[in-house]
User: Which sequence fits this backbone?
């Protein structure tokens, strides 16, 4: 081959290489909840939105199939998975700021929950950034309410009962009601009730529906105690290794997912309670006696949280109260 022919071939190969599409990247994303849960459905749509506008393919591993809930945050922090989802309050043992949305009756409506998130988000982002994580979005569960086999007229009705706990806040709530906290993951709820490991729980109507709570409880007391959030975050190093266009696409899809997720949560509250009733559960409002005692417990837990969180906690609460007009 002559030198001129070689140069021509090289030019053709170079041009062909430039014409090839960029190789797609594949990311795994572990989540704790099953495909029927609206959080997972929202995340699946988020992944599809990213894939539609970038060369990044995100495989959502739901129901703890890749990593269990307690392992997800560290798996992302260590780079074993680029992004993941966790219940924010599961990180309360690391820093009390992560527990602010699980203080009973501090924010017990969607408007209040949004104001609290706006007030606490900058600090949550700062805490995650210190661990090499970048927050993408957060979506609340419907308000947490009581499930039991018998009517709950007062907190004393739960004294000595085994009470499902899923974070530090629910453990403390159980203790203050005189119940015995028992750590149970979402997927284990039906078995835990059927085997007598737990007698009552406080959780969202969506979890009640997904676990078919009517099979093992008969009463739903609509306390709407708090609206805990799930967070979706990404390993910062992995995120910053992406090109600018892909980073922008992820953040845009994340903003849409947060807006969509809050709307899905509100719709889930109405449909979830309706489904519980349709399946024979008795839905009732808390009695004055129960409400008064739960309010006392809420104030106790707020005071305890402020003592633990210090100046940072005071800063968040003051910002929240200013935003919500409290």
Assistant:
């Amino acid at each position: 081959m002559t030198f001129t022919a070689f140069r021509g071939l090289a030019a053709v190969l170079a041009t062909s290489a430039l014409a090839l599409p960029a190789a797609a990247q594949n990311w795994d994303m572990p989540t704790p909840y099953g495909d029927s849960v609206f959080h997972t459905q929202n995340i699946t749509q988020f992944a599809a939105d990213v894939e539609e506008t970038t060369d990044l393919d995100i495989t959502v591993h739901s129901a703890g199939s890749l990593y269990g809930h307690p392992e997800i945050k560290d798996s992302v922090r260590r780079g074993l998975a680029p992004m993941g989802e966790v219940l924010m309050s599961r990180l309360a043992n690391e820093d009390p700021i992560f527990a602010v949305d699980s203080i009973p009756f501090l924010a017990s409506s969607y408007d209040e929950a949004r104001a609290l998130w706006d007030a606490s988000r900058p600090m949550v982002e700062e805490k995650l950034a210190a661990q090499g994580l970048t927050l993408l979005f957060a979506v609340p569960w419907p308000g947490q309410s009581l499930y039991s086999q018998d009517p709950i007229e007062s907190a004393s009705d739960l004294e000595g009962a085994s009470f499902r706990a899923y974070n530090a806040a629910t453990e403390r709530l159980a203790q203050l009601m005189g119940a015995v906290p028992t750590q149970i993951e979402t997927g284990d709820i039906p078995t835990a009730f059927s085997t007598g490991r737990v007698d009552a729980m406080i959780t969202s109507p969506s979890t009640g529906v997904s676990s078919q709570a009517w099979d093992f409880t008969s009463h739903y007391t609509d306390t709407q105690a708090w609206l805990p959030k799930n967070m979706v975050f990404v390993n910062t190093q992995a995120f910053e290794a992406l090109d600018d266009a892909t980073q922008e696409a992820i953040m845009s899809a994340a903003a849409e997912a947060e807006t969509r997720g809050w709307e899905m949560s509100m719709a889930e509250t109405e449909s979830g309670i309706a489904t519980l009733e349709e399946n024979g559960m008795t839905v009732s409002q808390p009695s004055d006696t129960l409400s008064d005692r739960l309010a006392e417990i809420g104030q106790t837990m707020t005071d305890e949280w402020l003592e633990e969180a210090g100046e940072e906690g005071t800063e968040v609460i003051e910002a929240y109260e200013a935003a919500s007009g409290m």
Remarks:
- The CA atoms of residues 38 and 264 lie 7 Å apart.
- The mean pLDDT is 91.
- Residues 288-324 form the longest helix (37 residues).
